[in-house]
Design goal:
The chain is mainly α. The chain has two domains: 330 residues, no CATH class; 122 residues, no CATH class. It is built from 24 helices and five strands. Helix 2 runs antiparallel to helix 5 and helix 3 crosses helix 22. The longest helix has 25 residues. The N and C termini lie far apart (61 Å).
Length: 528
């Protein structure tokens, strides 16, 4: 009778050698899935409208800098450039669609590098293409949108360096890490987690490689402009990060893990679980053992710091690829037809379940049809922030809707102010989404640059204005009284499909400020 160790080894494939020949430069499986992922995201990119954060990034990018209060410069500069091409969501999101295609290609190649054949490569690419959380990240231009690709390049580069000994993979990993740090600082979680994994495994030998440290230095050099900007501005991002724990939805460890399983598609769980277990039972996958450890460490770090559920989404493509390489040998051979059939049935089931999830993470349905779907579907995306409570549509959709109406309603109130007073009046709003919507859509109405104490808008200050009056959009109209000689309610925001928190806000005219706004400005600071 075979020992448990031999039975496990049989399941995950023999050690020491590749179990499938590597595909050449032209890999039809990788290319096919890359085109599929890109095509789907590109086809849907122009539906609905520009997302709250995308509006903010466009405005930030129109003020070029080496950094901003709440993010590095890459995504804002890219957003401003792409939106400038066609002033619509399609052009804005085209780079993200390209990243989704590149991720599918890389996942297939990663699995092949670890010994997977066509089936394993296709399984890895399919998983990253249909996992609901990854589909959602590929639908919007956000600072997180490029994390799945960059984190996978980093893991792939280190694994390949460990497997082959070739130093060029350190350079590839370094460039990917540096560019991603210019998009979002969250890569630090993944870098630290992989570092812990390396130290805890035999791959600690990589630490003696000169190329590893040169690659790390290259990453630091690429990321330096943003880090120097943060230092020059007293690290506002750290203050923002400290506030994020209170803003994000509270999930205990059990609920957090369950949410991960659901949002990544429960039928794909065996694949990433195989990616965690495989390196510990197959000598062939041993060089990837530190990635499995890094995944667990990263998940733990995000939970302990009260991060959002999607913060760890970028960890999954690497373990999907490892899992595909772990399971592929199990279904090879003439006597393994039943195993291959079972794997294909599981993949078909995962595809069907992701298809049911898709309208909740991709802008597929018209809004009325989406509401009808939500009314009958048992599936619900988790709320990432406490303030989203009460919103009818998924947060990513609600925050794409109503911003043009918000600008039009604010402009309607603006026109009620006597023309002689408008020159001495500024518009002050609560958050960067409102401010960016007015900056982008309000220009057609002749609105002045919006003021807000939220994040980068706080650092921009009064934007060259010295107002005696304010048009204010905020909750609780009576709270204006202590600051105005006379306050008049001119309207209420009415954005039925938008975020619940944006509805019913007072649009009020504060005539005759009782405070010097320049002196009072530090009290309006709102970092979160």
């Amino acid at each position: 009778m075979a020992s448990p160790g031999r039975r496990i080894e049989a399941a995950f494939g023999p050690g020491g050698v590749d179990v499938a020949p590597a595909a050449g430069p032209f890999d039809p499986v990788a290319i096919g899935f890359a085109l599929l992922a890109f095509g789907v995201h590109a086809a849907l990119a122009g539906r609905y409208d520009v997302f709250r954060d995308e509006l903010y990034f466009i405005v930030c990018g129109r003020h070029p800098a080496f950094g901003y209060a709440d993010q590095p410069p890459l995504v804002p500069l890219l957003a401003a450039a792409m939106y400038g091409i066609g002033h619509n969501a399609f052009w804005l999101r085209l780079p993200v669609a390209a990243a989704a295609g590149a991720l599918a290609w890389l996942s297939a190649r990663f699995a092949r590098a670890l010994g997977a054949g066509d089936l394993g490569a296709g399984l890895a690419a399919l998983a990253v293409t249909i996992a609901p959380l990854l589909m959602g990240l590929g639908a919007l231009l956000t600072t997180t949108a490029f994390d799945p690709l960059a984190w996978t390049v980093l893991a792939y580069g280190l694994v390949q360096a460990a497997r082959t000994g070739k130093g060029r993979y350190f350079w590839i990993a370094g460039v990917a890490a540096g560019l991603d740090l210019e998009a979002k600082y969250a890569l630090v979680f993944w870098g630290v987690s992989l570092g812990i994994g390396v130290i805890l495994t035999a791959e600690r030998r990589l630490l003696a490689r000169r190329e590893l440290w040169l690659g790390a230095g290259l990453a630091g050099l690429i990321a330096a402009p943003s880090l120097l900007w943060q230092a020059a501005h007293h690290f506002p991002f750290l203050e923002l990060a400290a506030a994020a724990g209170d803003k994000n939805a509270d999930l205990g460890p059990g609920a957090f893990v369950l949410t991960q399983i659901l949002e990544m598609n429960p039928l794909l769980a065996p694949l990433w679980l195989a990616g965690l277990a495989g390196p510990f039972v197959s000598a062939r996958l041993k060089p990837a053992r530190f990635v499995a450890i890094g995944f667990v460490v990263c998940l733990t770090l995000v939970m302990l710091t009260h991060g959002k559920d999607y913060y760890v989404a970028a960890c999954y493509p690497a373990v999907f690829a490892i899992g595909a390489a772990a399971l592929a040998p199990r279904v090879r051979g003439r006597r393994r037809g039943w195993a291959r059939a079972g794997l294909l049935v599981g993949a078909a089931g995962a595809l069907a379940l992701s298809a049911a999830f898709a309208p909740l993470v991709l802008p597929i349905l018209p809004i009325p049809a989406l509401k009808a779907y939500l009314a009958v579907s048992p599936l619900r995306p988790a709320a990432a922030e406490k303030s989203f409570k009460g919103t009818l549509l998924p947060q990513e959709f609600a925050d794409q809707l109503g911003w043009r109406d918000f600008a039009a309603q604010t402009a309607r109130a603006w026109r009620q102010i006597p023309p002689a007073e408008r020159a001495r009046t500024a518009i002050k709003v609560d958050n960067y989404g409102e401010a960016a919507a007015l900056d982008i859509y309000g220009a057609a109405y002749g609105l002045p640059p919006a003021l807000s104490g939220h994040n980068q808008y706080f650092l921009w200050g009064l934007r060259g204005q010295d107002p005696s009056n304010l048009l204010v959009v905020q909750n609780h109209f009576p709270r204006l009284a202590p600051y105005c000689r006379q306050a008049a309610l001119l309207g209420l925001t009415d954005l039925p499909d938008a975020m619940a928190s944006e509805n019913g806000k007072a649009i009020a005219y504060c005539q005759g400020l009782k405070v010097d706004l320049k002196a009072y400005w530090p009290q309006l600071k709102h970092y979160d």
